[in-house]
Specification:
By secondary structure, the protein is mainly alpha-helical. It has four helices and no strands. Helix 2 runs antiparallel to helix 3. The longest helix is centred in the middle third of the chain and has 34 residues.
Length: 148
């Protein structure tokens, strides 16, 4: 746990940052991320039974939950690091800015999975970041293969 535990007094063994709002955000988002990712993993294991209808149903069910798990995981990490470095103002601001940018990216990239019947325009907008990432990855991979 970020911050550690009290070693003495009436609250011995209790979390030192228990009353901090960002620590509470950390605990709640970490709990949501953990349980939703466990649910995703168990559902995907059951989807391997072999029934094709079960596979498609499982994928429709778990993709939004995977988005929730990734979003909550990044929020928990951001809140946990922030609460630990909050005494150093510039570093805590950097942590918040990077965390918010990443969380925003995850929300934008996973939002089509939450709303599968979206407009074609929205799908095209969210398609291009994936396409750009694939192009960048394939470009660096093909250069590595040419060098060998």
């Amino acid at each position: 746990m970020p911050g550690g535990y009290n070693n003495s007094g009436p609250h011995e063994g209790k979390e030192t940052l228990l009353t901090k709002v960002m620590f509470q955000v950390f605990v709640i988002s970490n709990t949501i991320a953990m349980y939703s990712s466990i649910f995703v993993a168990v559902t995907l294991i059951w989807a391997q039974v072999g029934d094709l209808i079960l596979v498609f149903t499982a994928l429709r069910l778990v993709m939004p939950l995977l988005g929730i798990a990734l979003g909550m995981l990044s929020l928990a990490f951001m809140a946990g690091v922030y609460v630990v470095v909050s005494n150093l103002l510039w570093l805590s601001i950097v942590v918040l800015v990077i965390g918010i940018c990443f969380l925003y990216s995850v929300i934008i990239l996973f939002s089509p999975l939450f709303f599968p019947n979206t407009t074609p325009t929205f799908r095209y907008i969210t398609y291009y970041p994936f396409y750009l990432a694939a192009l960048l990855a394939s470009g660096s991979h093909s250069n590595d293969l040419e060098e060998e």
